[in-house]
Each structure stands twice: as structure tokens, then as C-alpha cells.
Design brief:
This protein is mainly alpha-helical. Strands 1-2 form a two-stranded antiparallel sheet. The longest helix has 20 residues. It starts with 6 loop residues before the first helix and ends in an 8-residue tail after the last helix.
């Protein structure tokens, strides 16, 4: 899971709306190399799991709420995708990792 950027979380905080995380599994096997179109295959299955909505903290500090919401959503995904693996807030910060030149971030 790549880190998240702030945009969608800023919108959620500004509008007071929750983020509704969706886990989509099985699509990797449906993608051909260097293609963006999904190729249906009878032997492949995909699933979509709708997780509980995650609401902005609402502390009144928009910048802190954006970062807290982004971390909560990212860690929720990681908990479902990689249970038991250690995670830390810096792993979810797309802007910081892109600025540090981390490969694959922001692409």
C-alpha cells in the first residue's frame, strides 16, 4: 500500500464527511502488463469489502485533523491487508516520502 496524500482527507475534514474505505482484492491478476484495462478471466475472482466509515476527529485544528484522518484510514487498510505487521505514521505521509525521493511515491 502506497502512502496517501492529503487532498481527499482535507476535503473530508473541510466538509465534515467520513471517508468510506473500500478494499478491492484480486484485480492484480486481471491486469495485463503495461495495460490499464481489466481483462475478465473466469478463473480469477475479485472482491470488494466496504469497511466502516471513518470520521474526521473534529478538533478544530484542520491540519492536525487531516493528518490524523489520513493516518487512521491508512492504518485501517494496513491492518486488513497486512495484519500483524508493524506500521508507523511516517509510512502514510505521501508528501514527505515524495520530498525525500522515495521510489514509487506520487506516481
Amino acid at each position: 500500500l502506497k502512502p496517501f496524500f492529503r487532498g481527499a482527507f482535507r476535503t473530508a475534514v473541510d466538509e465534515g464527511l467520513p471517508v468510506l474505505p473500500l478494499l478491492v482484492r484480486g484485480t492484480y491478476d486481471l491486469l495485463l502488463p503495461d495495460e490499464w484495462e481489466l481483462v475478465p478471466k473466469a478463473q480469477r475472482r475479485c472482491s470488494v469489502q466496504v469497511l466502516d466509515p471513518i470520521y474526521p476527529p473534529g478538533t478544530g485544528d484542520a491540519a492536525a485533523d487531516v493528518d490524523a484522518l489520513r493516518w487512521q484510514v491508512w492504518s485501517t487498510y494496513m491492518g486488513h491487508l497486512h495484519p500483524g505487521e508493524p506500521i508507523e505514521p511516517s509510512m502514510a505521509d505521501g508528501e514527505a516520502l515524495k520530498a525525500a525521493g522515495q521510489a514509487g511515491v506520487g506516481t
